[in-house]
Amino acid sequence: MSEEPLEPTGTNVEGEAPDAEPTVETEEATVTDDSELERTLGLAGGLAIGIGTMIGAGIFVFPGLAGAEVGTAATASFAVGGVIALLVALPTSELATAMPKSGGGYYFISRGLGTLAGTVVGLCLWIGLVFATAFYLVGLGFYALDAFAEVGISIGGSPGLLVSALAVVFGVGFTVLNVTGTENAAKLQNAIVALLLSMLVAVLAFGLLDSLGFVDAGTPAEEATDVWSAVPILSVAALVFTSYLGFAQVATVAGEMKNPGKNLPLAMIGSVVIVTVLYVLTIFVATSVFDKDSLADAGETAMVEIGRELLGVPGALVIIVGGLLATMSSANASILSTSRAIYGVSKDALLPKWAARINLRYGTPHVALAMAGGPVVVLAATRQVQLLAEVASFLHLVMYGLICVALIAIRRDEPEWYDPEFRVPGGDVIPAVGAFASFGLIAFMDPLSIAVGAVLIAVTAGWYFYYAGDVNLKGAL
Amino acid sequence: MTSNVLVPVKILEGGGVSPGLMTLLGTVDVTVLGYHELPEQTPPDQARSQYEEQAVSALEDLEQEFRSAGGEADHRLVFTHDSRQTIERVADDVDARAYAISGVTGDVDSLLVALSGDVAVDRVVGFVKEVVGDRSIAVTLFVAGEDAEAAERKLEWAEEKLEGSGVDVDTRFSVSGSPFQALVDAVKGHDAVVVGEKAPSLKELVFGDEAEKLAEASVGPVLVVRYDEYLDG
User: Fold this and answer.
1) Are residues B114 and B228 in the same domain?
2) Pick from A185, A181, A178: which is nearest to A367 by CA?
3) How far does the CA of residue B209 sit from the closest CA of chain A (Å)?
4) What is the pTM of this model?
């Protein structure tokens, strides 16, 4: 490797070259030749992005689906997911402090492993986020349906169709809001996340007291047995891993974070730890209140029934409101991240430059937002909760695995510019286990999800050879 | 050493600097801070790649105009989600003595200098002295919201310092009503205002920066002499 960072070279099919501006990173700004980019996000903002994206549809939709498969053993599935997320969050933190730039996982992989892996991951991140957002929106649709039922509006005919319609309406709504909204929504997002956390903690605390026998809310005794064996637990872990997508989104705003050397690792690792604890407790409570069979009956909105069982109608309402807020904040945060992901690859000439254009009227990246919102709406209309969630997880897991590999590769032959403020302890053990676990979890998914994911990877690799085969990004800062 | 004044300009939203302010600042050095505030959906880097060229050329023009008005000038360009944070950071960075909120004005012949409240009077007066230089700009010193005796003492002290260097000084104070409203009323008949930045207080966090509200109410430019933690605190 050279002493100085390399410049990206080559052009794509349209003759566009990567936009590489030499920069100097300080704690407060990124300084280029002619301008400065202010870092405005603090630790709280970073945590809100991580937690806000993660605590979304996942925890409000999966307890029913996961509990139906394995009962109380689903706590282990969520714990496995959390451990894998942590194994990936550590290497991601090291890379992010060495390269605190927008683009996140895509950036590290394209620089560490080269353009092919970069293109696949960059485009798969976009598509993966689209699947994840669609999943959040379907969750939102189910919760909205329950909200209607709770306030006494009965839905005749086909509730499924209504869920699709709601998901589509909200998908279009969030996209339009992101294109036209110039009000700073960050504070609102932070407040929503704080509100959500306190609601969950309150219901959980009561549920825990009940499960452990300190108070008796009159919940029925369990009958169906739990499935405590590795394969089902892991396959449920593969399903529910979608609930952990989001910590790496913190890295997509790395370029906007104040004091990135300290705040990036704290925000990423902190949000993983916080949500893991919360998830495991939630599932424990959920599966203690209901057994497998009743969870299966309650389905996507089983959490509402759990709230009702514990605290009556107010409990159900708290969970419905929480579910609506959580799915909204996840969907909104994901649409934002998607547009960041598209910008990252378009800047490097892996997608046409016009994809990153900013709208003159609102100052927002309308093309990228449309490229996020458009496919989201189509996918959300399918209502395939499990497929959407698993494909999203698949594509993210590929990226997570490759982030770990990229870290090992960069460390093998450490370039001069590589000077992370945070280093993962224990040599290559954590990234190696992280990569193995990420790729390994994929094997436990539904075959259909694996097939869809594999096709998407093949398509994005094909795009590289057609569109950007001459672009070289490896080692270029 | 000549003091530096930071002039923040919304460079891509038609923000400009009135000729009167340029002439007024001809006696000091100026850093023009061109900034562009972005909604959170837009990464600052994305805006940079699209708007940098246009912004730099506008800034270079402004810088040139400040130079021809007299003092040294340079520029900074920042893309940000939070312009207040940016202005603070760059002001610290270039060690700015004051920053200017550009308003509309022709030639500045009269200056209102507000010394009300807990501001560093000697720093404000020193800055006014430097800006006025040997030009014939009439200065009105103003205090509101303090009892008559304290106000007179403060004004007398400041007047003495300024008159010693040949500046034409007048004094005025108001003891009744809201100090801010009294200041806005006093601005009438003056071309520009100089105020001292106060230590950040709870009230300011709640009601927004007084200087900005003053600029809105008075239309003309406002020069804010910065609060200095080390010197004033």
Assistant:
1) yes
2) A178
3) 19
4) 0.87
